[in-house]
Amino acid sequence: MEANTQKHLDDCDAQSKANESNQSAYDNLEEEEVTIDSNKIVDADKRLDKIYRKLDFRIIPALWCLYFLTSFGSNCYGLTLTMNSSEGHSLAQRLKLTSHDTSTASALYYVGYIIFDVPMNLVLTKVSAQTWLSRIVITVGLVYTCYHALTNNKGVIAIRFISGMVGAGTWPGMSYYVSLWYPNHRSTRRIGYYYTAAQISAAVAGLVSAGFQKMDGVKGYTGWQWMYLVYGVITIAVGISLLWWLPDRPFAKQRDGSTNKLKKAYDMFLTPPYPLKGDDVEIHRRDIQERYTLLRWSWKDIVQILTDLRIWPLIIMYFGVVGTGFGLAVFGSTIISVNNPSLTSIQVSLLYAPIWLFDLGGILILTPFADKFRRLRPWIFSLACLIIIAGLLVMTYAHGSWNKYAGLLIAGFGLGPTVPICMSWGAEIFQARYGDVGTAVSAALISGLGNLGSVTSTYALYSGWPADKARLYQYSNMMLVLMLGVSIIACAICALIKDRIRQTH
What global pTM score does this model have? Predict the structure, then answer.
C-alpha cells in the first residue's frame, strides 16, 4: 500500500514538473511572439517614418513657398501704410487714405475670403489639386502687381476685396491637400511646418520693406510701389513652377474616360513625378486608405456639415485666434510706432520682424505635442491662448515702450500653434463622418467664417477706432483678450461634444 502511494506521489511530482516545463516553454514562446510582433510594429513605424520624411522633403517646401508668398502680400499691405512716412510717401499719405478707408479695405479683404473659401475648396475636391493651388499663387501675384498703379482710395478698397477673392481657398486648400497625403495623427506638425511661412513672411516683409524704403524715388516710384512690383513678379514665377514642383494626389481620382487632346497634353507636360517609388507606394496607400472613403459628395452632405453642431465651436476658436493674429499682423507696425514715437519708419519695420520669429518658435515647440498627444489638443490650444492673453496684458499695461514691445513678442509666441491645431482638429472630427467633403468643407468653413475675427480686429478695432489711438490701443487690445477668452470657452465645448454628436456607425 505504501509503495503504491509513494509511486502515485512520484508520478504526480513528475507530471507537475512536466506541466511546469510545458508552461514555461509556452510562456517563453508567447513572450517570443510578443517580442517578434513588437519588433514588426517598430520596424513598420520606422518604415512609415522614412516614407513620410520623403514626402516632407517634396511637399512641405512647396507648400511653404506657396504660403509664404500668398501671406507676404497681406503683410506688405500693413507695412506700406507707414513706409517712407517721413517723406510723405507712404501708401496712406500718397493716396490720402482716412482711417475709415484703411479699415474698410482691410475688412473687405477678409470678406472676399469669407464668401469664396467654401466654393474654392469644393472646386479643389473635383480638380487637380496641384493645378488649383498653383492657380491661386499665380492670380495672387497678378493682382498684387497691380497695386503699384493705385491712385485713389476707391482703388485700394476694390483691390483689397479682389485680393481676398483670388486668395480664397489658400489656407483651407492646403489643409485639405495635407489630408490627402498624411494621416491625421501626423498632420498638425506638417501644418505647423508650412504655417511658419506666414510668420517668416511677416518677419521678412519687415526687413524687405526697410530695404525698399531706400529705393523711394527711383524711376519716379515710391518704395511701396517697388515692393509690390518685385513681389508680384516673383509670386507669378513661383506659382508657375508649382505646376511641376507640387505633386498632385497620391491616388488619382476616377477619370471620365475623356479623350480630349488638350487634356492629354496637359497631363503629359504638367504632371509632376510621383514622390514615392516601389514598395513605399503600397505601404503609404495602406496607411492612409481610410482617408480615401466617401470621395463623392452631394449638396446634402454640405448641408449636414453646416448643421453639425461641432463645426461652430471650431469656427469660434479660429475667430478669436486669427482675429488676434491678423490684428497684430496688419497693425503691429502701427502699435510699435504709437508706443515709441521716436522710432523711424525703418526701425519700426525692423522691430516688426522678431514678433513673427517668436511665433515661429511657438509652432516648432508646441505643435509636435499636439500630434503626439491628440487627446490633449484642447489643453494645448487653451494654453497657447493664455500665453497670447498674457502678452496682450503686458503690451497694454507694462510701463515703458520696450516692456510693451516684449508683450508683443510673448503674444507672437502664443499665436503660433493655435491655427494649426484648429485645422487638424477639424479634419480629425469631420473626415471620420463625412469623408473627403468633410475635410474640405470643414476647413473652408473654419477658415472662411472664422475670418470674421480678422474683420473685427481690422475694421472695428485699431485704425477703425480712432479714439483708441490716444489710449495706445488699450481698448482694442482688451477686445482681443475677450475674443481669446471666448475661443477658450468654445474649445472646451468642442472637447465635450465632439464624441457625442453624429458619430460614425
Answer: 0.75
